[in-house]
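Recall from the previous lesson that a structure prediction takes nothing but the amino acid sequence as input. Here we apply that procedure to ABC transporter permease from Yeosuana aromativorans. The sequence below is the only information supplied.
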Amino acid sequence: MLIYLRLFKESFSFAINALRSNKLRTFLSQIGVTVGIFSIIAVLAAIDSLDRNIKGQLEGIDKNTMYVTRFSFGPTNVPRWKRDNFPQTGSEDYEFIKRNVPDIDACAFAIVGNPQTIKYQDNTVTNVQVTPVSNEIYEIDNLKLYKGRFYNETESNNGSAVIVLGYNLAKNIFEDEEPIGKVIRAYGRKLTVIGVLQKFGGLNMDSPDEKGFVPANFARRFMNIGEKGALTMIAIKPKKGVDVAAFEEVLRQKYRRFRGLKQGDIDNFFITKLSGFTDLIDGIISFMNTIGWIISGFSLLVGGFGIANIMFVSVKERTHIIGIQKAMGAKNRFILFQFLFEAIILAVIGGLVGLVLVWIGTIIGTQLAGDFEFVLSFKNMFLGFSVSTIIGLIAGILPANSAAKLDPVEAIRSGF
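The prediction returns the following C-alpha cells.
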C-alpha cells in the first residue's frame, strides 16, 4: 500500500513540475476546458435558477387548482379552427360551476386583459398587467397583504371601483407616499386603492409584485368579453382530501351538460390542472438542459482535444527523460500515472477556473436582475468538477499509455 502511495506522490510531483516548466502551454491547454465547463455550468445554473423561481412562485398555490378556459395552456390534439370557435367561459359558466359542482373550496372568474397605463397625479406607470378577477383569487393564489385589504365578495359582485396593487407597482406609483385610500386612474377610470400585497419576489413578468387586481364585474361594464372579446377563465380550487381525478370528471360531465354537449361531441373547453402545468415546465426545463449539454459539449470536446494534443507534444519532448527513468527501473505504471496526472490536473484547474467565473457571473446576474436570483448549486459545482476530471482522464489516457509503452533504449537514443 505504501508503495502505491509513494508512486502516486512521485507521479503527482513530476506532473506539477512539468506544468510549471511550461506555463504558457499549460495556460493555453486550460482555456478550452475552462470555456467548456463555464458553458455547461452557466447554462445549467441559469436553467436551475429559472426552474427555482418559477416553482417558487407556484409554491403557495395548491397543485390541484384547475383552470377552465376556451384555450389550452399546453399542446393539444384539437385543431386550431375548432379551438377558435369554442364559446367563452363567461360569468354564467362561473356561476353554474360555483353552485353546482360539489367539493369546491374556492372558485374565481378572471378576465385576461391588455396591459394598462396607471396614473396618479404626475406619476405614470405604463404596461401594467391589471387583472380583473373575482375576490376568491385571494385564496386560490394564496396572496398575502402588506397593508390594507383585498376587496370582499360584496365589492366583487357589485363591481366596485377599487384596486389592490402589487408591492413593486405601489412603490413605482406612490414612492414613499401612503397608497391606501388614494385615487388612481386605470382603464381611463378612477379607482380607489384599498390594499397592497406583500412582496412576492421571483420573475418580474409573472410576479404579483408588478400587477394590479380589480373586481371582474367592474371591468365587465366596459370590456368586451363576448365570443371575439378578451379571453376569460375560471379558476377552481378543490377541497383538501378530494379525489382530484374524480372531481375533474364530475366537473367535466356537469359542464358538458350545461353546455348542451351530446355523447360523442368533443369538449368545447379545456380543463388544465396546475400540476399538469408544472409537469410541462419540468419537460421544458429538461429539454433546455439537454440542449445546453449538447451545445456546451462541443466546447468540452475542443478542450479535450486540446489537452490530448498538448500531452502528445509533452510525451514527444520528454521521450529521452522517459527512457532514462525506465532505464533506472521506473515501472510502466509510474510513467502512465505521471502523464495521466498531468492531463487531469490541467483539466481540473481549467474546470475550477470555469466554476469561479460562473460563480462570479451568478453574483453579478442576481444584482442586475433584481428579484430574479441566480443560484450555483453544490450539485452543479460537483458536476463541473467531475466532468473536468473525466475530460482530463479521457484526454490523457492515450498519450500516457503511449509514453508508458516506450522502449527505454529507443527513448534514450531519441535524445541524442
